[in-house]
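Example record used in the benchmark description.
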Amino acid sequence: MAKSAADLVVYVVDDDASVRVGLTRLMRSAGHRTMAFDCGAAFLAHGLQGVAGCVVLDISMPGLNGHQVQECLARNTIDIPVIALSARDDDETRRLARALGARFFLRKPADDQALLDAIDWVTGSGGAAPPPAPRSG
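Model output (structure tokens):
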């Protein structure tokens, strides 16, 4: 059974305060509950056991970067869908994010609708898979 947006939490993890605020507003406008974190360590310390939702994760952050956060999630068998965001749009960054389990990779600044579609798809709250996301930026 598909979850509704209100049943899910979208975790936004990004070191840029303006990006966190913008993404949080976008998620709320779409009816999603959100929690925002300014670094990977704070997000991981929060604890995610039994929570339905997904993570919108910046790849390039000081401290634990997005790839390291993904490694920690995998090591601790925390199965939560990850949508990776990065201003770096090179093959190696994309390849590593996907190898570490990211279900989507979007380049910053991400298209709002592409991001919302990706969230709906990875959480099962929107039905069928969306068309391939445009390369935003």
